[in-house]
Write a structure and sequence with these properties.
Helix content of chain B: 25-40%
Bound molecules: adenosine-5'-triphosphate, adenosine-5'-diphosphate, iron/sulfur cluster, magnesium ion
Structural class of chain B: alpha/beta
Number of strands of chain B: 12
Distance between the termini of chain B: 37 Å
CATH architecture of chain A: 3-Layer(aba) Sandwich
Strand order of the largest sheet of chain B: 6-7-8-3-9-10-12-11
Largest sheet of chain A: 8 strands, mixed
Distance between the termini of chain A: 36 Å
Strand order of the largest sheet of chain A: 6-7-8-3-9-10-12-11
Oligomer: heterodimer
CATH class of chain A: Alpha Beta
Largest interface: A-B, 45 and 39 residues
CATH superfamily of chain A: P-loop containing nucleotide triphosphate hydrolases
Order of helices and strands of chain A: EEEHEEHEHHHHHEHEHEEHHEEH
CATH topology of chain A: Rossmann fold
Number of domains of chain A: 1
Shape of chain A: globular
Radius of gyration of chain A: 21 Å
Shape of chain B: globular
């Protein structure tokens, strides 16, 4: 069996506050194989970004990893020094965020930023690093890259800037790219271009992608597997077409029904009553129980873990074998 | 067919985005105008939902603000039941008309005064239009809160005590307070999660049926528009590219830009359809391309497209502004 690029085991992220400890990520486990695209989807506050931040060691104190292990190629990276982590970020793990301006420094040209990053991670001369930077910009589809490389970020449009950020994330040939809502700030016509570039370049280089988004449509056309998060936990994880076409978890089912599509002519959308609970008020038992149409006694007392179901894992007591036999 | 409730006629607005006078004198620059809305016309019938769809900066919100009178047009007019809203309406008459219009904004966080009780926020239009007394007003607020799926007790709470979806319900209750006929909804669910968006879209449909409302519904999301609209106008760089009833637009679209937008919608049903990434991005509205504004990205563009601006013309059930459609060239590819 191939060793996964990334494996996350029981990850728990907590924030101590005046009113007690808040658990933003609660016992989350998953793995990503080489070259695979794992989508992480869920509504705002579900814990998607926190999971990403934990992996790249960028959780803001007082937030902290309270439990669990994160391994890159089998080696723990959740307990290494911040110096070592800085080297891993960029060299082994590339990052793409929603707002390209958070990744680009407005005071430096694109060339300066790319060359600096390349040389921090790879033993290249300035001239070779510049060549590599131009080739990368070419790859991500910046026309006339040799000339545009000396421009400043503000001279680029939003879509072009996101292309530069992709170039920046890939410049040291990382094994894993974590993309947190990479197309959310872009227009639909540009979204497709960016997804396309990101997917193609990662595939060319054999890099795995963790694609965090709230947009099921983007997941459907990009991911191999998908993890659906709810209230800090994984509700369902499995092959993307299975989860989308025949969702098992009642939350995933509700989510899929609530998304309007181009081809269906339904008069009303499926409605999940209520909203996701705040971290300070997560109900006992299954966190989805106040909104779940299939709730039963056990859901109010016991918290379900993701259990194997067909070729996926589902955190719902409906899929507990013992329950089915009882 | 009945006369339209709202008639938008050749509406244009240009914003002065010049540098200050002195800078211009020194740098010898002319005044600079950004034409955000350019000769836009459409009409909305009573009880229907007309949607405007387009990418960021296409002029959707600007048209919304022109219609509700938050902004004055450079030229053109908006008629409500045949009465011009820009020309000479004053005092009582203007107030009477204005109360029949309301607007719901994208951001339910910014559009509600954080220091006011929800009850006062909802009652505000009643006060402005001086329609009701204290006790009557409280009664009406309770009724409105129930109508949008909140509880009458919520009147005593503050906006920050509500979730995004609940805040949008409050904004809807406020919009309904003065019994309007017509509501302009500018991206009412864009800031919400999909499960909450579904609740709000369902609520808006229910209210429309119950109260006989007419909507101008603005969105950049074609799937949402498809779900809500009876008729649709597609905007590109301040101009209408295509206007059609919803069914026609989704099954027999004419304009190359509409086709591009439809192709760009992610394939949620996983039918295997791949998104066709389009070339390029929306050009700067300060320096729009000559001729058809879509020509740098259009696979059908030719010399005529680069010089002559296409006008909106009727083609069966659709109106489209495109030379290729006029010449029948679009059928050949
Ligand atoms: N007050 C203003 N001064 C100058 N330019 C403006 C002003 N308001 C809007 N614009 C410009 O007018 C154009 C249309 O803007 P508008 O806000 O109507 O777009 P929109 O379609 O609502 O976009 P979005 O989807 O981003 O909300 C844009 O180019 C915008 O920058
Ligand atoms: N500094 C912080 N202190 C306390 N709670 C936080 C902090 N940062 C994030 N959270 C909470 O953690 C949860 C998960 O956040 P996040 O991962 O950003 O969600 P997502 O990316 O899925 O929208 C949210 O409830 C959020 O409010
Ligand atoms: S465990 Fe119970 S409440 Fe939770 S999703 Fe399953 S059926 Fe619903
Ligand atoms: S007028 Fe020409 S450039 Fe414009 S959409 Fe039609 S074919 Fe394309
Ligand atoms: Mg996030
Ligand atoms: Mg807008």
């Amino acid at each position: 069996m191939t060793q996964p690029v990334l494996s996350v085991e029981g990850l728990t992220v907590q924030f101590p506050t005046r009113r007690g400890i808040l658990t933003a990520v609660d016992d989350v486990s998953f793995a990503i194989n080489p070259g695979e695209v794992l989508g992480v989807v869920g509504e705002s506050g579900a814990g998607k970004s926190m999971t990403g931040s934990a992996i790249i060691g960028l959780i803001e104190p007082p937030g902290r990893i309270a439990a669990g292990e994160i391994k890159l190629h089998g080696e723990r990276i959740d307990n290494v020094s911040s110096d070592r982590m800085r080297k891993i970020r960029g060299r082994k793990i590339g990052m793409i965020f929603q707002d390209p301006l958070t990744s680009l420094n407005p005071l430096y040209t694109i060339a300066e930023q790319l060359i600096e990053t390349i040389r921090r991670h790879l033993p290249l001369s300035h001239a070779d690093a510049r060549k590599r930077a131009i080739a990368l910009l070419d790859d991500v589809g910046i026309p006339d890259a040799a000339r545009r490389i000396d421009d400043y970020p503000h001279q680029f449009s939003g879509g072009m800037r996101q292309r530069v950020v992709i170039a920046l994330a890939l410049c040291a040939d990382p094994d894993l790219v974590i993309a947190d809502e990479p197309t959310t700030a872009l227009d639909v016509s540009v979204q497709a271009q960016i997804i396309d570039v990101m997917k193609r370049l990662c595939a060319d280089r054999g890099a795995a992608i963790m694609l965090i988004t709230h947009d099921m449509g983007v997941i459907a056309e990009t991911a191999d597997r998908v993890a659906v998060m709810y209230a800090g936990r994984v509700a369902e994880i499995g092959p993307v077409e299975k989860v989308i076409r025949s969702a098992a978890h009642p939350y995933t089912q509700g989510l899929m029904g609530s998304i309007p599509t181009l081809s269906t002519d339904e008069d009303r959308l499926t409605q999940i009553p209520g909203a996701m609970p705040r971290l300070s008020a997560i109900p006992a038992g299954c966190a989805f129980n106040p909104r779940c149409p299939k709730v039963f006694d056990r859901c109010y007392h016991d918290r379900p873990d993701p259990l194997p179901h067909e070729d996926r894992r589902v955190a719902c007591w409906l899929y507990d074998k013992a329950e089915a036999e009882a | 067919m009945s006369a339209p409730l709202l008639d938008v006629k050749n509406l244009s607005v240009a914003f002065d985005v010049s540098k200050p006078w002195l800078n211009r004198m020194i740098e010898r620059q002319d005044k600079l105008f950004l034409k955000a809305v350019d000769n836009v016309s459409f009409s909305i019938n009573k009880g229907e939902t007309f949607a405007l769809v387009g990418e960021s900066g296409s002029g959707k919100s600007t048209i919304a603000r022109l219609i509700v009178g938050l902004l004055g047009p450079s030229s053109g007019d908006v008629l409500f039941e045949g009465k011009s809203l820009s020309a000479g309406l004053e005092g009582a008459e203007a107030r009477r008309l204005r109360r029949r219009f309301q607007m719901i904004f994208q951001d339910p966080f910014a559009s509600l005064n954080p220091r006011w009780h929800v009850g006062d926020i909802i009652a505000e239009p009643l006060r402005v239009f001086r329609t009701e007394t204290g006790a009557k007003r409280r009664e009406r607020v309770a009724e409105l809160l129930s109508l949008v799926g909140l509880s009458p007790e919520d009147a005593a709470r503050f906006p920050h005590q509500f979730s995004g979806g609940q805040r949008q319900r409050v904004a809807i209750a406020r919009a309904l307070a003065a019994n309007p006929d017509f509501i302009v909804c500018d991206e009412p669910t864009s800031a919400l999660d999909v499960s909450v968006q579904a609740q709000i879209l369902n609520l808006m449909k229910d209210l429309q049926r119950q109260l006989g409302l007419t909507y101008l519904f603005i969105s950049h999301d074609l799937s949402v528009v498809r779900h809500m609209a009876d008729r649709i106008g597609v905007l590109y760089l301040g101009r209408l590219a295509e206007v059609a009833d919803a069914k026609t637009l989704f099954t027999a679209r004419q304009h190359p830009y509409t086709r591009m937008l439809l192709d760009a919608v992610p394939d949620l049903e996983m039918t295997g359809r791949t998104r066709k990434p389009v070339e390029g991005e929306i050009p700067s509205p300060l320096d729009p391309p000559s001729g058809c504004a879509f020509n740098p990205r259009c696979p059908l563009a030719n010399a005529r497209c680069r010089t002559e601006r296409p006008e909106l013309r009727e083609y069966g059930p659709t109106w489209a502004a495109c030379h290729a459609v006029e010449e029948g060239r679009d059928k050949t590819v």
